[in-house]
Amino acid sequence: MERFQKAMNLIDQGRLQEAKGIFEEILMDDPKNVDALYNLGMCFTELAHPEKAIKALEQCIKYRPNYSNAYVALGFAYSRMNDTENAKKYFLEALELDANNSFALRNLGGLFGRVGEIEKSLYYLEKAHEIYPHDPNTVYGLGYAYQRVRDYEKVDKYYKQVLTMDASGEIISLAKDGLREIAVSHLKAKGFRMDAVFYLLSALKLFEQKTEEEIRRIAFEIALKGQSGLNINNPDTKYTLN
């Protein structure tokens, strides 16, 4: 038990290769340890060895055939190999064992989204969100799916919700990109925003009174602020130049 907990702690630290080694040691002593098999499979998938993950997870299911999360993990390993049919098969089998498995629902939603079946994608993602509303991957998935059907009000809602969550840097970045895309779409659909035109005219008048060196310094300061990201979709956020 002590070795197993050490391996789980290593996973929490992102040290998957070391954790994998400990799970393999445990299985040498206890080949039917389903918890070690399950987590070994998860490690293999994250370490880009889905074919090895499948072998470990098939053994896990053999010894515990009603282990819903193992079916989800197996489906996820197949999805990493772009085997959509087997991925869908195991996600659905997970739901047969546990209809409220939010991970199976979320992954099915993502799978259907990738193959363009947006109605099914939204069905499963909405169900996953009802069960576990605090999962940033599910919330991002909903934003992405609604973006595909151009329901921009819901896109805006879910992408902005992602920005308030404890999400990975990748998911945060994708949500920000999505917000920028819908902002551009709205701008193109509505034509010129007169408030933006007046802001630009005011800026041009201001620059007329500046020297070339002063303009260069202002441009440099704007560029520095832009490096940390400008939240142009939040009207409450204001930026000030020195």
TrEMBL record:
Protein name stated in the entry: Uncharacterized protein
